[in-house]
Every structure is written in structure tokens, then in C-alpha cells.
Amino acid sequence: MSAPRCAVLLCADGPLVVRGPVTVEDEQGAVHTSERSVVALCRCGLSAQRPWCDGTHKRAGASGG
Ligand code: FES
């Protein structure tokens, strides 16, 4: 059985959109999991729900890169 595939979409001035259930380990070693079919990862650092994007980048006019 092969590992499930995932796809990552880079959104201009926004998050990384990941298709597929994901596990994210942050810089402190905390593990965050999501079983959703699509998740958005914060790139701007402003989300209150990190590592997930909560849309704050739009209100703040932040650029995620
Ligand atoms: S990229 Fe959306 S809140 Fe940071």
C-alpha cells in the first residue's frame, strides 16, 4: 500500500492550501492533525489558529509571501 498523496497550492499573499488529511509539526515540536480534505496553513504568522489559516491575512493586508 502506498502513502497517500497530497497536493500543496501556494496562494499569493495568503496561505498554503493542502489537499488531503495532514499532520503538521511546528517549531516547538507540537503536532497538529486535521482529517479535513482541504486545509490552509498560515504563512503570515498572524492567525490565532496556527498552524491553520483563519483568514486574518486578508483583514491585516498581510503578505504571506
Ligand atoms: S496566511 Fe491566513 S492568517 Fe496567515
UniProtKB/TrEMBL annotation:
Keyword check for Metal-binding: yes
Domain annotation Iron-binding zinc finger CDGSH type: ranges? 19-63
Organism (species): Nocardioides nanhaiensis
Protein name stated in the entry: Iron-binding zinc finger CDGSH type domain-containing protein
Sorted alphabetically, the keyword list is: 2Fe-2S, Iron, Iron-sulfur, Metal-binding
